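Narrative progress, year one. The postdoctoral researcher (J.K.) led the effort to move from monomer predictions toward full complexes, under supervision of the PI. The following entry was the first complex the group processed end to end, covering 992 residues in total.
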Amino acid sequence: MPAWRSLSNFDWILFLAILAACSIGLVVIYSATTGTPSAGAFHRQLIWLLLGIVLMLLAVLIDYHTLAEFASAFYGLSLTLLLLTLVYGRVVNSSKSWLGIGGVQFQPSEIAKVSTILMLAAYLGRERVRGLGVLHFAAICAIIGLPVLLILRQPDLGTAGTFMPLYAGAVFIGGIRVRTLVILALIATLALPMVWGHLKPYQKERVKTFLEPTRDPKGSGYQLIQSLIAVGSGGIFGKGFLSGTQGSLQFLPEQHTDFVFAVLAEERGFIGAMLALGLYFVIIYRCLATARAARDRLGVFLAIGVVCTFAGQALLNIGVVVGMLPTTGVPLPLMSYGGSSLASTLLGMGLVLNVWMRRLVN
Amino acid sequence: MAFEQDYKGFQDYYEARRLNTRIQVIQVLFGAVLVLYLFAFWYLQVVKVDYYKRLSDNNRLRRVTLMPLRGVISDDEHRVLANSRIAFNIRLDREKVADMKAFFPRLAEILGVPEKTLNERLARYRGRPAFEPVILKEDVDLAEAAYIESRRLELPMLSVEVESRRNYLYGALAAHALGYVGEVSEDQIRSDPSGEFDLGEIVGKAGVEKQYDGDLKGVKGWKQVVVNSLGREIQEIEEGRKPNPGRAMRLSIDLDLQRALEDAYGDDAGSAVFLDPNSGAIMAMISRPAYDPNVFAHRFSQDTWGGLVNDPRHPLQDRVSLSKFAPGSVFKVVMSIAALEENVATPARGDHCTGSWRFGEKVYQCWAVRKGGHGYLTMREAIIQSCNIYFYHLGNDMGIDRISKWAHLLGFGEPTGLDLPHEEAGTVPDPEWKKRAVPRDPVWHPGETISVSIGQGAIEVTPIQMARFAAAIGNGGTLYRPHLLLSREVREGVEEEERQDYVERRVPMRPRTLEVIKDAMWGVVNEDGTGGRAKIAGRDICAKTGTAQVFKASRDVDADKLPKEKRDHAWFVGFAPKDDPKIAWAVFVQNGGHGGTTAAPIARLVLERFFQKLDARQGGQQLASVAVPQ
């Protein structure tokens, strides 16, 4: 079926909600960085947004079944890029997660996110993979595990962590038995102390600080406290555009990346925060609706993969901002400053729009 | 297409329902978390909004203290002794230097400061925020400040800071009276309950600067500024309160007299104080060795400061009120008053001095032993000649209790109440005191009474006590509280005289006693006595010399050939003129030898200046009264 004929079935609500979230993000980035050393962020983000929209539309136009045919190729390319990153990557904040090609710096881990979703959907979408056997389970682990291991080598625990919701979503929708789920949950609980033993000191510090933020107000608890101050001092109506003090006076670190929602809440208040939260609600629900309406298993798993990654990241990020989760360093998709993340999220959303547009069997 | 065949849609109804259910589970899960966040935002932004607003303001608003100008200290004629002046410091903005190492040689050349010194100064700021400027050179002259200012384009990293700095116009002059200022110590900040002190605040550390710090320092002002997380000032948002300058203080010190004293006093250690016998107002005081209080105003004066603290000659010690010494023969005046008042002797009491006196197993000597003693003496002659034997006998007759009683009555063994931060009380010994102070040998021996009788042994006095004592004899028996403060500014330009009653107490003495003592002290200076070198014709100077033994030399050793630190301390204590005295003093020269030789000439030079000024003033008054038309 030609692409233009499907346009009548385009999900305008999801599309507009995405654009709205990106625009809000741009405005907040502008306000949070004006007068600070990161003042150039707005323009760079705008360029990445335009590029991301082009990528998204490309992902919409090509039938997702066609894309799925090349899933292995994309997946292989991503793994190669991740390997290259480990060798030639640029070190930022003591982790090698950036790769430069022709003067453009990007994070291959963000590309890997989309290609892993595609690869996973292609695998699980096959008719014969119905009901989750041990072999299928192992295959899912392998598909997700490969990029995760490479990302962990960078090391970038935060980004590696964003693959976990994808994993959980794939296994759950893939048909894991409830009994198995309970057993896995038990094993995870028992393994927790072991994981704790393998965490790096700064990671332990983050968890401890989350449990008791005033323990070290100038150190690791600082971000958490400053984020709460930013959100709380916003009140109902907020301090207004360019009038937030926590971000622009640099009390709140990462004000335009990981804590962009805190700046939004400070400047736009409870009302602004609810509006943004509402947009995320709409985006997540439209994606889930797409998963339910999808015409085949491939479509279901594409939408599920995208929404689990997206929602997992968004809820994790906002949870940190309101002090309900420990600091993780996960950006807020669509709003946080960061070109690779924005482009990869838009690409993923393109896949969901694609599935919705082609939901009807004709 | 290969994939089209693989994905055939849902053939199994149950499979489709199961998928649907599981997606709904995810839907509910995500929805629940979003609702949870909604409540979190509601709690933070609606319920706790005031709490977080306050925290946010505390974050960005900083109170900046504005330091007031310190009050001016002037002499009795409003001549400024200490004020605040503008000082220029050269600062370096480290953020504007890309390569510090490469810049350093040039910087050293521009400032004329060795690279090593610059490095040390820079090292002090390690760990401070980078925007905080480094003071590289303090207190430069106007020409250098202008040089740096005019090259701002070429040297954007250097700037000139204007600072108010305490300035003692005459350097070491009256250093121990004025004291000095310095940065408030951490102990002081910690022990101050009001929490008034700021870090780096300048406070009085000694002398008048410390005593009247509360008035001199003024009232701090403040302003509020918006700062960023690095503490850099972004903007000023409120005027706040302007600082109130410190009050001006007028001291009773007279610059002319003080200068005369500074010039007259040699290089010896010691001290001298001249005061008004009718009020206790101190007109001049000196303590040597002295220091220049200006050096404490510098930041980079650690070496100088350490040098002053560790100097074995203790230049920081105020020898007027903080050091106690044996009074020597000056104490014979106390002995005479006690004997007359206690009716132990009459002025006519005669005694024979043969140069030595055996008491118990010990032989006590008179200083005139080599010429065979003073022969026959009355009390007046004994004071004039400062005969030891006469007072040995008198002391022996009187006993230590009556001696100690009169020493106390005349103001010894207690602080005088001088308006300086610390004061030494001195020691007036008696059997009770010995029991407490010397547990090894708690019994009072009769021989100790003999030593005290000529101002030796355990008795110790401060020069300020001596001056007050001399004043009391001159003024008829009133002990005044010595003081430096004459008046202080209450409002700008409005001065208020101190209306304190400086009378400490009146010593009950018969007029006849005072007459005898004054007459004898007049004789010391004017009748070929030990104080002859202080004689000024027509001024009726009354005084007593004292030579306090430090080292007991054998009879054959020539006192002048003893090493300096073993020589006697010299005293010259008195008042003038005899009737209606206008000035009283104590001059003390540590290891100065004979009081009459070393101390008396110092007093004479100061007194000459004093009477010169007094005559000029009275002459002026007479001229004025003549000039007024009737």
